[in-house]
Amino acid sequence: MRTARNNLLSDTRYSIRVTRASSIKYRVSRRGLTLVETMVAITAASIVMMTAALLVNSGYRGWNQIYNNANCESRLGALDTMIALGAIGRKSNKVDYRLYEVTGNTFTRAPADGAALPDEIITGQAVEFRYWDTELYAGLMNPDVNATAYALFYLDNDNKLNVDYGPYPPGGVAGGGRITSDNVTTVTLAKNVASVEFSHTAKNIAGDGKGCVRMKLVINDPEGGSTKTALAATLMRNTWPK
């Protein structure tokens, strides 16, 4: 009996050792990858990399398009004009500014016939703001001093929207033409301008405005071949003499 039991235990231990050895051998043999598994992994990785590359490329092209649109010459010109119009208009004299109709190099105060109906919309191709560009001193309290400087916005013969800065008096226009002298500074705000129109609402027969000047600016974009339209308005806040 004892011998039979010992033999049974010996057979059981041998069977366990064989099973363990087979399991270890199986696990060792499964450490590598088959060719099919390798190809599947490479294909999956390639798909992920291609998707990432497409997303990066799409983002790069989108960013370039946004940057080019935001920094193209026509858009920057329109922005510079709107900023200058607003900055000059806000500090200008509400009761002393001029709107002009322009034919060639001739500036005629709008309306050209010298008569306007109240609340009539008056349009022109140039506008002259008059404002104070000095510190306050006793001489400025004279009611005859309406301004000390002017800014004349106009379209020149090269399709550039310019602004002339100079002293007032005498102002920007004399005898139907722009004043040009050493103390007048000309700044180009926008190029390739197709048209510009300034307008205000008349309050009397002389064509004096109510203190709000509107602008419609049309610029051709030579790079993209498109046309951009900028609309802006400025409200004059200063009134002197009252």
Largest sheet composition: 6 strands, antiparallel
Structural class: alpha+beta
Number of helices: 3
Q: What's the mean pLDDT score?
A: 82
How big is the Rg? 40 Å
Specify the helix fraction band: 25-40%
Order of helices and strands: HHHEEEEEEEEEEEE
The total domain count is: 2
Name the overall outline.
elongated
Number of strands: 12
Q: Strand order within the widest sheet?
A: 2-1-4-5-6-9
**Contiguous runs where pLDDT drops below 50 for at least 5 residues:** none
- How far apart lie the N and C ends? 133 Å
Q: Roughly what fraction of the amino acids lie in strands?
A: 25-35%
Description:
With 242 residues, this protein is of the alpha+beta class. The chain folds into two domains: 68 residues; 163 residues, no CATH class. The chain contains three helices and twelve strands, in the order αααββββββββββββ. It has a six-stranded antiparallel β-sheet. A four-stranded antiparallel β-sheet has the order 3-10-11-12, covered by helices on one side. A hairpin with a 5-residue loop joins strand 5 and strand 6. The chain is elongated and about 100 Å long. The relative contact order is 0.15. The mean pLDDT is 82.
Which secondary structure elements does this structure contain, and how are they paired or packed?
Layout: H1 2-29, H2 35-71, H3 73-90, E1 98-103, E2 106-109, E3 121-124, E4 126-131, E5 149-155, E6 161-167, E7 173-174, E8 177-178, E9 185-190, E10 193-201, E11 212-220, E12 227-235
Antiparallel strand pairs: 1-2, 1-4, 3-10, 4-5, 5-6, 6-9, 7-8, 10-11, 11-12
